């Protein structure tokens, strides 16, 4: 029925952490299973995060852990998921997981979903009778859009599918159900020979890729769609904005027309999985010189230096998982355990800080 010609590119997953954090305990990978009648499988009732942990000379360091976990809590709040987990519980569980995994670098996947109470099963859309379950897994994940993409860029298309409308599915929640829309965008792109698709919002303005935010470079100025264009408030997007400020590059949030993509000097995606990936063509129209542009390269290089712990980040962005290791350059060298909660603790203490995850105000 479907053409098999699409160049489906998926990255190999060489190593997976053999334990999974589940509601305060570490369980075996093989035991991390759900019943097929779980609410989430039928009605898409999950929220999740995607977080990268980078290899640095001081051991693995998790990138913007607190901001990701705050977005996780925000997503749960939007969907009225009344769970017990605090920011520090989730951060410390992630640190413990990476430590236990022995992985030098990995991708961390927290997920909270509506499960099934087998003693009192409920099968309706109403999610309230279904218990919540929270898990965090980790695996080693390579370059999301392919190894060459970071340097050479990717060929993309504008999708025939629009992004979610703000009053139907909130794009600012990272919910599993939103990714049915992402899958339509991604499958269409792959089957037509593109690496990724860019969706427009319901008004026809540029929104984002199936799993990435987008940036336009035009006349030396960096532009990105605002949250009102139905985008996920990307943590990498926020990092790019802050890096631009540091590099003295003007960056603005603006509604962007589709045609602006074709005439841009440079385009790039940002995202935890895609990191900073240049876009070399849109709908087979070459962007700029058809490779990684100069501004993109400056931002990308600063970003990777920060993730490697080789450049001071604009904020406290790296959480080093090894207790004895120093924090990022220029910091006080404290260990990164959040609030000093002990490993695998079930502590329910209040988070000290509220982390800002919405886009940095840039206007
Ligand atoms: C739809 C969508 N937009 C944007 C992003 C980028 O967000 P972040 O930089 O927080 O990973 C992602 C990835 O999580 C995504 O799935």
Summarize the structure.
This protein has 363 residues and is α+β, with helices and mostly antiparallel strands.
Please provide a written account of the structure.
The chain is α+β, with helices and mostly antiparallel strands. It is built from eight helices and 17 strands. The chain has helices at 39-43, 65-78, 87-101, 149-152, 178-191, 235-247, 258-262, 294-307, and strands spanning 19-22, 25-28, 46-48, 51-54, 61-63, 106-114, 132-139, 154-158, 196-200, 206-209, 213-218, 221-224, 251-253, 266-271, 275-282, 285-286, 318-320. Strands 8, 9, 10, 11, 12, 13, 14, 15 and 16 form a nine-stranded mixed beta sheet that branches. Residues 1-9 and 324-363 have low confidence and may be disordered. Pyridoxal-5'-phosphate (PLP) binds at residues 50, 182, 208, 211-213, 232, 234-237, 270-272.
Secondary-structure topology with pairs:
Blueprint: E1 19-22, E2 25-28, H1 39-43, E3 46-48, E4 51-54, E5 61-63, H2 65-78, H3 87-101, E6 106-114, E7 132-139, H4 149-152, E8 154-158, H5 178-191, E9 196-200, E10 206-209, E11 213-218, E12 221-224, H6 235-247, E13 251-253, H7 258-262, E14 266-271, E15 275-282, E16 285-286, H8 294-307, E17 318-320
The protein binds pyridoxal-5'-phosphate.
